[in-house]
User: What shape does this take?
Amino acid sequence: MKKVLTTLLALVTLLVACSGGKPAATPATSGLPADAAAIAAARGLTQDDIAAALKTYTPSGQLDPYIMFASGGQGGQVLAIGVPSMRILKLIGVFTPEPWQGYGFGGSSDKVIEGGYMPNGDELKWGDTHHPNLSETKGEYDGQFLFINDKANARLAVIDLRDFETKQIIKNPNAINDHGGAFVTPNTEYVIEGPQYAAPLGFEYAPIDEYQNKYRGLITFWKFDRAKGRVDESQSFQIELPPYWQDLCDAGKGVSEGWFFCNSFNTELATGGVELGNPAFEAGTTKNDVDYLHIVDWKKAEQVFKGGDVEKLNGIAVISMETAIKENILYFAPEPKSPHGADVTPGGEFIVVGGKLDPHVTIYSFDKIKAAIEAGGLETDSYGVPVIPLDKVMEAQVELGLGPLHTVYDDKGYAYTSLFLDSAVARWTLGGPYADKHPEEPWTLVQKLPVQYNIGHIAAAEGDTASPDGGYVVALNKWSIDRFANVGPLLPQNFQLVDIAQTGDQMKVIYDMPIGMAEPHYAQIIKADKLHPFEVYPEIGWNPETMSVDPNAITDAAQARVERNGNNVEIWTAVVRSHYTPEHVEVNKGDHVVWHFTSLERQRDATHGFGLSGYNINLSLEPGEAQTIEFDANKAGTFTFYCTEFCSALHLEMIGYFLVKP
Ligand SMILES: [Cu+2]
Assistant: This one.
């Protein structure tokens, strides 16, 4: 037992020494309870457990150095999580209405959600958020915006990190599902939405036996207007691709800036139909030994778009496959086998592809790709796209194990690949300019760390930037059958925090975090000090949609009023601790109601809500915020409205009556 305590003290000393000046006004040694070893023994904690606890326990009031933005999977939301404490800080409503934020219950966010409806106006009630991507400047996360795609319906959302709210959702008019998005170019010129399952462009009907000629892949370059904080659809374009089920993508950076890479996994052109005696998709799409890495010169595509050699389809410019080939925009390179990730190294020199059914990762050299393109004389696939032979572009292959999916990087020249079938994180060494950063030989496997289990994606601290931090990776594991108390047949996912601070085979799992709300797909981890959100809205009457003062905001409760003009009733309500002005609003059944709210609060702890019973209306009115709701008073009766945030001791008294005369 003494040994445990001694080790514990040594660990604490080490941690304090390594922690980069952060904590511990008093050295932890002097504050450690004398019975710590007894506690460890009673709880059955090993030395590793104690070290893990010390590395992750975050005392009340201490802030996390990193924030992880994780997709919320089928929940259609985004999660903000502190690292290394793994505390959930916020759920951000994106594709699905979210009542706490009043997202989609009457305020300006309704318009955001409606922006993502089907082209014919049909409501979409859920999304399958997949790959969050932070905005970048010179290849570094800049903390300004977060983008995320909806795989289920091919949509893209823009979240403004000044207030952590979704500002825009776009329905892709020519794709019906996507996967390889959202990925930004190094200066966020474009947010790229890669496709997934091929369909005719514009998702028009075409019989499945016309798959080869009518079904297509599609990559969309959404132009981001940083000043407006919105995607500009008129400056966006798409590239038509063969129907190869393009999957994960990544933008080139550094030496490969201006290029874009996507893997694919149905070069077989399988069309399924197991009920007809055809091979099922799972068999049909895995016959070939190689699929095609898609190599796209997006700078050239942008020139072609600006030059006008495009066709407009459903309001957006499309570069045809024929033009893409003629203008040398699109190339292929073989990639083994049914791959998932296509991950560009921090300096942009290499693209790492994990073949789900191949035990290797394959590393492509961007220099070699360029040389092969310049040398020319390439054969083509059946659609006429030039194919660069694998031996002309391959830098290395590293055997890692079963089911390599996705690769991220650190600051020590290591790469980390998730191994789905092995349920492991593989640490391996990069070569080239990274070879002298680590003690091992380049392109070798260093460690396979078991995780629990079925890991999908993996995220690293600042991992998708030009200068990853190291320190942590997070394994985004799927169902965790044996880690948590049974909460019924639908299992939580399991995020595991992995300590990667030491070189060599010293990776360790230091925290398990159940996610009991859908299946987060991917995450990015940003330094917390890069984020500068508002503490309260900058001025009284701030409209979060326009990010400016709303013309209908009021600045004083004395300006609160009700005005009637025929059947239109317009109301200006002041909201301040702990009452609304006015508290009585009376209208006639059938009146059209336009109701403006202004929070007059300037204190951080003074968020109010406005929940109107019976009318499906709920707003969150954060300090300074203005909102407008508009509805028909189609139900006569006596309705109450009340503050839905516990805002003060007299919170229960913050109510009013909405009286609708028959
Ligand atoms: Cu994925």
Summary: The CA atoms of residues 16 and 25 lie 10 Å apart. The chain has eleven helices and 44 strands. The longest helix spans residues 2-18. Residues 130, 248, 457, 521-522 surround copper (II) ion (CB under 6 Å).
